[in-house]
Structures
1.
Amino acid sequence: METIETSTQPITGPRAFALRLTVWRAAALIAVAAAVLFLLFPLGVGADYPNHLARAYIAAAIEGSAALQRYYEIDYSFVPNFTIEMIVPRLAPVFGLYGAGALVVAASVILAPLAGVALSRTLNGAAGAWLPLLGFAALFNRNLEFGFINFLFGLGLALFCFCLWARLAAGWKRTALVAPFAAFIAANHILGFLFLGYIALLWEGSKFAFGERGGFWQFLPSLIIRDGAAFAPGLALIAYGFFIADDVSTYTGDMGMWTQRMTALTAGFGFFNSGLSVVSGTLALAALVGGLYLGLRKGVLEIHRDLAVVAAGVFVLVLIMPVHLAGIWALHFRYGGAALILLAAALRFKNPQGAGKAAIVYAGVLALLAVNGASHVMRIDRSQQEIRGAMAALPDGARLISATSPDVGFEIGVHAASLAVIEADAYIPNLFTNISAVAVKPEMTSLHFPQGKPHLVETLKAHEQTPLAPAANGRWSENYHYGWRAHFTHLLYMRLPGEPGAVLDGLAERASGADFVLYEIEGAAPN
């Protein structure tokens, strides 16, 4: 019989089991609701996501498409960023490409909060009550806003693997069980794997500091040899990936203080910057910080010692992480949601008096965050579905270049052209081939710039007669837009609702919507 002691009365037996079951039911209900949302609005994630989905489509369809074979090829070398390309092509025959993508998005969004519930139950039992559900405040977060689906999936897996790490006693059995799980995480996303190693190290450091891992010379060899062995296969995979890669950036950017730090601290539940986003985010921040302060001060809450160290270490990571590191952008806000989930999992009731009323308040906060998140998902899906319809009318094998109005939001404007790959086996110049098994053919490298953003019309106008030179590094060229009229058949112009189309000669409008105009480039005969 389970017994959870508090300062007022124990939660025992059937009551403890019922509380645990109720929390899991609530978590499952939230997870199902999120999954339904993304299945109903499968293009509700913008920014990088359409680009990821386009690569998954190429991997699935290239053998049967002459147009795709003309532009792309598959390089089966290991890349530690495989989630969508690994899962979507295998689900697509059953659910369709967009349905398969929606399932992966839903899993990526709900994995981490569910892992927080599992972690709370592992360490705090029924005393955690509904507190781990606060981790669902991170359901709609900055990573989802930017379409970092592979990262979110890897992060969720990392938190579940950490739950296993914390549950098992230190020893070779734990190492043997964790090692294949950690290697799988490395294949999904390198940052998820590195995060798992970091929080496992914090956990072991806390255990040592509080006298549970013996003396220093007993602890250190066990940490390096036995615990390190759990991460050796994953490290070997990553090392192999970097060894065979020929396009690894080493750029490291600035810290982005102070505005970027504030963005990072609220990234766990920040989702766009609309009026509702600001209101819901502000209320969530006030409720979480205020509730934590009052709960700990009044003795209503207590915090799991070792998990508190882990959560604090992740908050420190958020504060010190640069914006760019080793070519990876937006590192500063990647882990805000994980910090929130770990903190929620670490809390438990010392005195449950008033917990019911507090639950109602926080349920309202979570509902407001969900309404904000769902409204943006539906907005983005509506716009991208309209663009998808226009892309379906392109001729097979079209070559599409993008341009943009200066103030267009990144969520739709950056990679919406990727839908042309899916709908018309088209070529686009900005496919993420440097983090993918998909590559462009050698003859296309001068027209290829991974992660490149759409240019302004003025830039295209200035370089429409500039000769296109071969790619200097043999892989890609920042000048892919030089002489664009001679190399592309269509132009997608992203605009704000109500704005006019692109002011360029020699374009014939073929489709338009509130956020875009699709043009055919007159006289284009790319070779």
2.
Amino acid sequence: MSEKLMPWDRIDRSRENWEIAKDYLTMKSERKFEFVTFKDVIEKCADTSATEWWDKVIPGYGSGLWCPIYYAITIGGGVRNSVMVIHGAQSCVTAVRHFFVLYVGGGGNYYWGNPFTFVTTTDLNERDNILGAPEKLRKTLMEVDELHKPEIIFVAPTCGPGMIGEPIEEVIDDVKPELKYAEEVVYLDLPGFKAIDEGDMMRLATADYWSALMHEPKQKIKGAVNVIGDYRGTYISEREGFKPNFPTTYDEISDILKALGLKLHVIVPQSSLADIRRAPEAEFNIVNCPMLAYPICEEMEKKFGVPWSPHVYPLGREGITNYIMGFAKHFGKEKEAQKYIDERWDRDGIEPLWQEAKKLVKDKTLFMDSAISMTSVNRQLGYARMLQELGVDPDKIIFFNIGPSELIGRREGVEYFLSTSAAGKPFNPKFLWWPAPHAIKISPIEVADWLGVKDSEILHLYGDLGWYTKAPRWDVSNIAQVQSSIHFRRRRNVCQRSIFFSGTKALLRDIILAIKGAKREGKWSLYSRILGKWSVPEPAEIIESKKGISGE
């Protein structure tokens, strides 16, 4: 039997790029779509990077909405009492801050551990980018040390210095003994040309840097657990002495650990330098973001012998149980953990919501729509797995606007989800194949029409409100819609990543409200009224309408 050819294997690469692109647009207009499973992509592209995949599909096209400098600033800039030095032009930092403010909010600090993230540049000009300017880097390092008095300085180059081989490490080694305050200066080798896919950038931003800052532990702290892999919301209410309306993920993790007689030790990578150094004192590591955590966990296990659990995005009873049991088994606390899960599920009133939502999602077709890159495929896999556990038929879970490059780029997390099951069935969702760049998306209307699914049968988890949200066809009053992007799901008393018990409860409420609210056809939302096509009443019609209201 011949091996199944994937859609991207059937492309005639002898043709010009514009001809291939034209065929794709024709394919979209004629709705020549097909289904591919997540497992197919991972297995067929075992030796392919996300960047290489794009070259196979659309030669010359780069999928990168992101630049590695984004992750240098995002991750390094969140370490407490740190300063980020970008060896490059000021325009690169401006572009990053502009992106953060517009795309994810946070006023430029992106929920980081610092009240404000100090990002300075060496302000290179055209000449510097060609001939180099190591003297500017040296001067900048001396100045930021004196002005900001940081514990740690991170240095990352932009494309220019990276391409000409600027001796950045040599400058750091030379200037480090002269610094008064910075205990560490870390070179993050992340120029823009190193990667064009976000998943590849995450690996670059975590490889070796963090374990190199850690110290060999003098002793292990009994019951201590680290949380690895986050770059937002690093504050813990217990440590800071206040209870926020929007608790961090670590508040809920800390409560769970304390209930089992364990303790949250430190958060890596975004914590203080002292915390990062003592991270190996913990007995176990658990994961927040898989892409940022897995490389660090693997390094810590190899270097310091700290075991870890791969479970992520605990949503639904099965997801929560898998996550908690992942570390409870290590400490021999399975019985205590199961008792806590049962009690918490009942105490938080989740079961009645679960049963109500289960009835409502029966026979629904689940549209998992990642219309923006911020709706990570791993996060949406967590939502989809919970919906499968809730009773949605696996054959009716449809992903779209998530390209194979995103699956390959986040391979570690995707492989984890494919190793799990939900409601006794393997978890291997399918997505609607469409080889478009990020800029050209499929609307859920196209998907619904192609599948022949009735509007009343759809549950749409969307990444962002789109151009298609127009009355009368696509509106919350006739299509059940739930926001799935973490940055727009901030709810009072729900942990920051909308996971665990509080996140499960909030998602169930949203599903119930969305499905019930989709029975109000004709009561269109303001958003869809604005985008929809509505005729403007003539003056005579308005006068007659007013007469009717006044009773004249």
3.
Amino acid sequence: MTDQQSNDIKATLSSLYDCLKQGRLKIEPALNAQEVGTVTSVSTGIALVSGLPNVGFDELLDFGNDLYGIAFNLDEHEIGVVLLGEAWRLNVGDEVKRTGRVMDIAVGPELLGRVIDPLGRPLDGIQPPALTKRLPIERPAPAIIKRSPVTEPLQTGIKVIDALLPIGRGQRELILGDRQTGKTAIAIDTILNQKGKNVLCVYCAIGQKASSVAKTLAVLKTNQALAYTVVIVTEGNDPPGLDYIAPYAATSVAEYFMQGGEDVLIVYDDLTQHARSYRELSLLLRRPPGREAFPGDIFYLHSRLLERSTHLNSENGGGSLTALPIIETEGQNMSAYIPTNLISITDGQIYLSPTLFDLGVLPAVDVGKSVSRVGGKAQRDGYRKVASNLKLAYAQFEELENFARFGARLDDNTLSTIEHGRHIRAYFSQSESAPFTVAEQITLLLVLSQRLFDAVPLSDMPKAQESLRAATRNMPEILLTCLENAQNITEDERQKVFSIAEQTLAPFIKQVCAEDRNSEVDRKLTQAEFDKPNKSTHKT
């Protein structure tokens, strides 16, 4: 090594030492106090912790190894913590640290089309989305001054709901019924119908079977609905803590889009499992039980969740959040604790009857026990005019049908009313994952109100409706646009629709006329046989 190289190295090292010395002089050492507690007890879904005197309610606690919990009970000597992971990963004596923040979730448009858990971790086998913004899962509901009335409809594509139980954007409509009656199918069909309508969707599965979630995801993918949907999932084998935070995390994701001026639909499937998980956690933490062993704040659990669904005014972006919570009843008991709580919180309910389901009437919506308290204001004029008397006619039919079962002789007007009601019920029947457009529904409702369907055999009603749907799609563009907007329909436009309907239904009507003639002949023959004198009697 030459002298020149040696001098260069000495100069470089001297410069480096000078930089380190200046940096050391600029650093002012400070103490960073950190509270560290100890786990004193571990149970399924919960843990008891001591040694964190300044912890706050709902504060997120870090147990290490990517395991977190929420401070739930703040007692004098210990803290009850809801675990957000598996309890077997925790041992008595393990350390726990405060994070100084509440539970939050990463939000952003990158979540669309993804399947995540309530902690934001991906479940679809893809890398986590790069998100920079986070929102707490528990947020206060928008103030009244920030809200706007519900004036715009949310089309579900389900005929019986759009006609008789309309839902508005910003409304909370409860879906309840016994298990296996089609509650989730209604919610999924509503999501499918939002394609191309500038409505984003959030589907929250709470404690569902993995097979059920996989089936739902397959339906969304097949119908290209996953592109505008965020799916948040907790499975049946997940800890109850994840079930507890799942709907709140999903609502925060939906609120991010709502605050950006978007219309959002959120489905909670279902809040019965959510309430049961909360009851489990409360009983494990020794909270006093109340009715049906639920804790006293079970009403507040759901009211603070559903009050976040609203329609914001234009000064706050004009977005909306429409909620479809699902509840499972037992033995058609709508007066149980959780169903009555949610009926009083929401703006209406759609009740699915197992009796109608067993009869093959799908969707099995019991119109008499269902109501929409807000959506009627948002329903379009075209629906309101053609469906205004439909609910009354259907109610009269149900009463007369029950009366007719006793075998009473009925006059022609009563028979006509019953026959019309049966065709109304046949009109309400609809296949799963086959939503109807507004124009198709308005056309069918016009034909139904004119009683043109009454001449069609009930067995041919599905085929007749499909033929009329195809004819609707081939209508002139001006008439189709008018029906799609569902505004005031003129008399000329009505006559055009009736003319197309009569031509479309003509093959079915001719068939029923022939059947009627045959049945009339059979009836006369039967009557003649009845009136014929009995020869054996005369012989006697």
